[in-house]
Amino acid sequence: MTIAIFVFSLLGAMAIGIPIAFSLLICGVALMWHMDMFDAQILAQNLLEGSNSFPLLAVPFFMLAGEIMNAGGLSRRIVNFAMACVGHIKGGLGYVTIMAAVIMAALSGSAVADAAALASLLLPMMVAAGHDKARSAGLIASAGIIAPVIPPSIGFVIFGVAGNVSISKLFMAGIAPGIMLGASLWVTWWWLARREVVQVPPRKSMGEIMVAMREATWALVLPLIVVFGLKFGVFTPTEAAVVAAVYALLISTFIYRELSLKDLYPLFVNSAKTSAIVMFLVAAAMVSAWLITVANLPAELIALLQPLLDSPRLLMLTIMVITMVVGTALDMTPTILLLTPVLMPVVKAAGIDPVYFGVLFIINNAIGLITPPVGTVLNAVAGVGKVSMDEVTRGVMPFMIAQFTIMFAMVAFPALVMVPARWFY
């Protein structure tokens, strides 16, 4: 009965158009009413405590870093470097997109920001070269969702806080799977683009490649600073976010000199607005998470899934399918906040490594950003690239299938995630 009230109060509120954050609060009120423990003070206290978390400070700083990188020329120089390296190959602009997406993923951690930047920089070039517009937009959207998997990742920060899992370990464990997602796009693009007749830019000379690399060096150094800083305990993930934002600000203003003081105000405002939305979602979800614990919903779910606890792979497969379905209707952040407190006790009861579960859970949620009808990244690419949603949805399908294939391969073979992860721990 408690599970039914939780599900139907949440879905009912969303169905009548109430924003997700307020739907979560309504769900919490419904649970409190059902348990005969409604108290507005408890509701307010949990709402405030939900966002009162030091690790969550990483979210606004990573968002600020992404805004600065796109406006300050770091993203453009990464694209130019990738163009110099692989732009001359047949279908080279697609490989440039994938290569740039993987590098930019290690800078911002925001799928929407990366996809929007790639769409504005590369989509016109791909269309002008003769590539199919829908397919090109689909590639850019699917490449953008690598950002929540490769560290630094906002998704890992939120999952780590909600599930009480080491964010540093999640960051390190996400490196290899993120590269695998990029490799799946590389192979899929090669298969799709091999018969296209397109204009191929001339091969760059070694001197031009070195110039492009020198101009992008300051941007390329940031991922190394973050990874090595976390690996050797120089700073925490939250401090890494501050380092990334300050580093991007210094490089953009004093070295590349593409940002002035008057340019900073709108960047700070945009990142503050986005951060406020995320933090309110987190606060509202923490109210529901507390009530989920009080109502003993995890124990009820464990009882329902009892037959699967002895088969971790089958349980993971079931969880991934459930997450896929939820991801078609909800954005990444509310999905993480809703499902993590419910699923984590089940995962632990089955003896599944929480870090391994977290990586696959975030990959699934990241792919959910390009699954219609919600598909936040699809909407961003369609808006920036002036492409219809139908075209982007059609173009993204083969790449989405490739990424889901990689995810389910990781379900079948956990070593694909955990063996490389232990190299970085």
UniProtKB/TrEMBL annotation:
It is found in: Cell inner membrane. It comes from the Bacteria. Residues 8-416 form the TRAP C4-dicarboxylate transport system permease DctM subunit domain. It holds the Pfam family DctM. Keywords: Cell inner membrane, Cell membrane, Membrane, Transmembrane, Transmembrane helix, Transport. Its main location: membrane. Part of the tripartite ATP-independent periplasmic (TRAP) transport system. This is TRAP transporter large permease protein. It comes from Limnohabitans lacus. The lineage of its organism: Bacteria, Pseudomonadati, Pseudomonadota, Betaproteobacteria, Burkholderiales.
